[in-house]
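Follow-up to my post from last week.
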Amino acid sequence: MTPLTSGFHPPYYAVIFSNQRTEMDAGYGDMAARMLALAAQQPGYLGVDSVRNAEGSGITVSYWRTLDDIAAWRRHTEHTEARHAGRAQWYRDFRVRIAKVEREYGWQIQDGTADPAA
Amino acid sequence: MTPLTSGFHPPYYAVIFSNQRTEMDAGYGDMAARMLALAAQQPGYLGVDSVRNAEGSGITVSYWRTLDDIAAWRRHTEHTEARHAGRAQWYRDFRVRIAKVEREYGWQIQDGTADPAA
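User reply:
Got it. Predicted complex:
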């Protein structure tokens, strides 16, 4: 997850996907990589930050221009199939939140200066 | 990060903190634990999900009832000091987003049923 996504000019939307994996692999890595690549091709996609730890806890936040863009990606056939497989075998627990990003700021060690909403 | 936070009744607010750690430890773990405990005592705090991987990439999402609650926590003296120390030594790169959660839903393997916005 480097570099961090940034500079999307609020307001825009975040899909906050927090989850706990099962022990089952069964093609999970391939599916996850495919979904990240496919999401990046969708209209309104801005970027994604994603982290998973060794205990299988994960948070993926994807960023989108509008709620309609999120809804269209949700309806995408291959994404729908992946979600169904996720419920069937890959995730023990998950939570999805749709949120409107109102403010963004950050900082990088390279310049040491605050970087308000690029 | 088990169990996942849930059931906060939108609308509420999320602080999405994505970050990349430096190599420096220097009390980071103690500070992080202290900040999580202190945040949980603040008015309007709802919960937090946090994950960091072995490469030092982290995403912490804290949930709050109102923007004023977030602003008050931001002004908290000990939190302010921790943020300054974070910029000085612990984080190579970070991004903070303030977002209004409009929808929440989830699923748990225990019952196998969708759990729309509790």
